[in-house]
Each structure stands twice: as C-alpha cells, then as structure tokens.
Specification:
The protein has 12 helices and 13 strands. Helix 4 runs parallel beside helix 5, helix 5 packs parallel to helix 6 and helix 9 runs parallel beside helix 10. Strand 3 and strand 4 form a beta hairpin. It is an alpha/beta fold. It has an 8-stranded mixed sheet with strand order 2-9-7-6-10-11-13-12, with helices on both faces. Strands 4-3-8 form a 3-stranded antiparallel sheet. Belongs to the methyltransferase superfamily. METTL18 family. GO terms for molecular function: protein-L-histidine N-tele-methyltransferase activity.
C-alpha cells in the first residue's frame, strides 16, 4: 500500500490516499429523516481552519471527531456490523492502519487537502454570501466529509435566502454519510445564525457556544432535530444522500431524466487511471447543460499509482470519451505550486 501523507488528519494517524472503487455497488438513497434518527445523543467536534486567498477572513468549520464516530459505533453495538455483507465493518475502517479497504471502503471518513482547495475557490466567486448557489441544484461526487458542500450550506444558513436549493451528497459508503457527512451539516447549521431561535429557546447549559474555532460537544435533542428540519425548510433547502458506486449513480441519473445539476463538485477522485472513464461519464451525465459549473480538484500527480491531471485531461479529450458522447475540455481556475502541486479544473463539455 502506498503512503502519501496527504490527509488532513483528525487523530494524528498516518494517512494513505483513498483509492477509487471499481466495483458496481448498488445505488442506495438515504432519507433525511433516516439520517436524523441515526444521530447519536451527543456529537463531539473540533475546528477545521481553512485558509482563503480571496482576501477575506479565513473560515473555520466545525467537523465531527473521528474518535466520536468510533465511540458511536461501539456504544450502539455496531462494532462488528459489516458495511456490505461479508465485508469489513465500519469500525474496521476507523481502526484500520490504511485509509483504504479495496472494493469496500473509499477513504471518505477523512478530510483531504483538495476539498479545502474547493472551499477556497468557491469562496472567491462573486457574491460569496452564497447568492450564487441559492436556487441551484448541487451534486458533490465522492463527498466524504463533504467540506465544500458543508461550506456552501453554511453560507446559505448565514443568509436569508429561501430560493429552492437542492444539495445531493454521494459517497461510496453509507456509513460515511451517517457518521461524518450529515453530522458535519448539523454542525454547520448550529454554528450559523439560523440556529439562533433554537439556541434562545434552550438553557445556556444545553448547548455549546457558536464558535467553530473551539472544540466542543453538541447535544442532539428532539428539539434540535425539529429546529434543524424547520430551518432547512425555511431556507428552501432540499438535501439528498446516496451511497454506491459511480456506475450505479450514473445509471440512476439516466433513469431519472429531467433537470440535473447546476453545480457539480468532486475532489481527490482522479488518482486511478482505470476509474477515469466512469467518473467522466458521471460528471457529464450530472451536468444539466453547458452552463453547469463542473469543478474537479486534485493533486497534479499521485505518486506511485500513475494518476493525476495529465491522465485526466487525456481521458477527457480522448476519442473513447468522444465516442461515448461525453468528451470535454478543462481549464485551470485555481492552482497551488508549493509542495505537492494541486489544481482545480473547470470542465466544459464539447
């Protein structure tokens, strides 16, 4: 197993780069009510500082602690429950020395650098008060901790827009969506002005201060769940969550038809050459039209496995992709050259 040390670590363990899953696990949709009911009584969180290059003040998001997710699994007696029948348990993902269980787990429990790069780029867009995402349909492919989408939702929670906004978060593993992705959304809401009415209704001792720069614990009460649901509806936000392979998501989108997504985001997903065709097909299918904002954030080169932007661009512009009707071009819109090179590319479809 190759060691990359690229992860933004939660518990100071050594990270290995997650690897794209090529098996076609089925598309499974997780409802909002299902995820709300799966929340533990208490969520422990720590600050995730994100540097911004737009000239605005750097942002800090609250992110659920990995050790807290581990404790939830153990306390609920799910330590040995497999993610997929016959496979490793979700607790096994958390305790494994590697960030990858090939064909089973894709590394989504940890936060990777390029997801923070996406936040930096999105923050730099005009009207960073989220006017540019309100009323849009957004998909994050291979979301993991979903920091870019959490950031966009936080911006909406900080405003007063009620335009119908749809956010779809996809990860290979349902346990990632339950244990990390959704709790991070709850934390973003709580740290925003949208939770003010709820916080005013409870005693000071029942909730932590709304300061994401300080670690804390958030009690998950029935009243908090109700307040979150009401706030989401008030802002016109529709949340969708799905697990499964990219192939299964593409098939689902094809069967659904109709309007798709105005903004499609993905990060750290191009490091395996064999997976590039299905990823490109999925991105193409997900975009509603030629005006959709499709952003791919990744390292310029993934040492040891052969992937990177050169391979992605070659696949994107290849005859094979053209024959499948999803050929495209990509323009670099963000770049960091210090250390391991990283870029964000905007994909346009031919």
């Amino acid at each position: 197993m190759f060691k990359f040390d690229f992860g933004i670590e939660d518990d100071n363990t050594e990270a290995t780069q997650p690897e794209t899953i090529l098996q076609s696990e089925p598309f499974v949709e997780l409802s909002l009510s299902q995820l709300i009911e799966s929340l533990p009584p208490l969520i422990s969180y720590s600050p995730l500082p994100i540097r911004l290059s737009s000239g605005r003040k750097n942002i800090t998001l609250a992110r659920r602690d990995l050790f807290d997710a581990r404790f939830q699994l153990i306390s609920e007696g799910r330590g040995d429950e497999p993610e997929i029948p016959g496979s490793t348990s979700a607790l096994g993902f958390l305790d494994a020395p590697s960030d990858l269980v090939p064909g089973v787990y894709e590394g989504g429990l940890k936060t990777w650098e390029c997801s923070l790069d996406l936040v930096d780029y999105l923050d730099g867009l005009e009207d960073s008060n989220a006017a540019y995402v309100s009323g849009k349909r957004i998909l994050e492919v291979g979301c993991g901790t979903a920091i870019p989408s959490v950031y966009l939702l936080y911006r909406i929670f900080c405003g007063d827009s009620n335009a119908a906004t749809h956010v779809h978060l996809q990860d290979y593993n349902a346990s990632v969506l339950e244990l990390i992705t959704f709790p991070n959304i709850i934390l973003a809401w709580y740290m925003s002005p949208s939770s003010a009415e709820y916080r005013a209704s409870i005693a000071d001792t029942e909730g932590p201060p709304t300061d994401p720069t300080v670690s804390g614990e958030l009690p998950i009460t029935p009243s908090l769940k109700s307040a979150f649901t009401a706030s989401v509806a008030k802002h016109g936000i529709s949340l969708a969550f799905s697990s499964g392979s990219w192939e299964s998501l593409k098939t689902h989108l094809e069967s659904r038809g109709g309007a798709l997504y105005d903004i499609v985001l993905t990060s750290e997903t191009i490091y395996r050459i064999e997976a590039l065709p299905i990823l490109i097909e999925l991105l193409h299918r997900a975009c509603a039209d030629s005006d959709s904002l499709c952003l791919v954030a990744a390292k310029v080169l993934y040492f040891g496995v052969g992937g990177g932007f050169s391979e992605f661009l070659a696949a994107l512009e290849s005859k094979a992709m053209a024959d499948r009707g999803c050929s495209g071009t990509a323009e670099s819109v963000w770049e960091r050259k210090v250390g391991v090179g990283r870029k964000i590319m905007r994909v346009s479809w031919v």
